[in-house]
Amino acid sequence: MFSRLILKFRPLALVLASSALLVSCDRVLTPNFESEITELGAGQYTLDPDHATLLWKINHLGFSTFIGRFNEFDASLDFNPEDIGTSKLEVVINTLSLDINNQEFAEELRGENWFDTANFPQAVYKTTSLIEANGNAFVFAGELTLLGVTAPVNLNVNFNGGGRNFLSRANTVGFSADTTFQRSVFGLDRFTSFGVGDDISLEIQVEFMEN
């Protein structure tokens, strides 16, 4: 009788034991993040390309939002948590890495009627000053250079957290950011009069590692 009870409740015991193990592992594997930006170290940080995403979005004839990405970009961050306004960010985008999950149309977009990557293989963004700070949310003024044209573009930045990465053992900070600008300002104005949106929205998710 006792052995039958053990067999009957054995699956439940295994589930409970597994759950306890997962909880204990979660406590071990979850890193401790600093919640205050002023608690992090100042200095040079470099982009972790394995944890970096750059998406662009544009209205397509009012029917949908067309979404693409750049698979290759680099960024450097001169980070000063004690005086965030003096922090500097520079992003260099390889426009050849444009990806829309449609190779034929991607090649067209790389051509001279659109991004003209043969003559302008890079786009560059640099912050110039801090406009606004609200907790861990910031607005930076900056300059975008695209197709040989440089124009002001503001960047909205949210600080996600920072701490010692238990995998890389490097001090790491994470940010999400977004901005919207008119592509026609940079001469990228094809089909704007036919309903293809002039506004391009960028969405950025990045992690930086301390040098």
Structural class from helices and strands?
alpha+beta
- Helical content, roughly? 10-25%
Number of strands: 11
Number of helices: 2
What is the CATH architecture descriptor of the largest domain? Beta Barrel
Looking at CATH, the homologous superfamily of the largest domain is: Lipid/polyisoprenoid-binding, YceI-like
Proportion of strand residues: over 45%
Main beta sheet strand tally, sense and closure: 8 strands, antiparallel, barrel
Q: SSE string, helix = H, strand = E?
A: HEEEEEHEEEEEE
| Whole-number tally of structural domains | 2
Low-confidence stretches: 1-9, 11-30
Could you give the order of strands across the largest sheet?
A: 1-3-4-6-7-9-10-11
Determine the mean pLDDT: 86
Distance between the terminal alpha carbons, to the nearest Å? 65 Å
Shape: globular
Any idea what the radius of gyration is?
Answer: 23 Å
Q: CATH first level of the largest domain: which class?
A: Mainly Beta
Structural notes for this entry:
- Helix content is 17%, strand content 50%.
- The radius of gyration is 23 Å and the shape is globular.
- It has two helices and eleven strands.
- A hairpin with a 3-residue loop joins strand 1 and strand 2.
- Residues 1-9 and 11-30 have low confidence and may be disordered.
- The longest helix has 28 residues, at 2-29.
- It has helices at residues 2-29, 103-110; strands at 43-60, 64-70, 73-79, 88-94, 98-99, 122-134, 137-146, 149-152, 155-164, 171-182, 196-210.
- An eight-stranded antiparallel beta barrel has the order 1-3-4-6-7-9-10-11.
- The chain has two domains: 1-30; 37-210, Lipid/polyisoprenoid-binding, YceI-like (Lipocalin), CATH 2.40.128.110.
- It has 211 residues and is an alpha+beta fold.
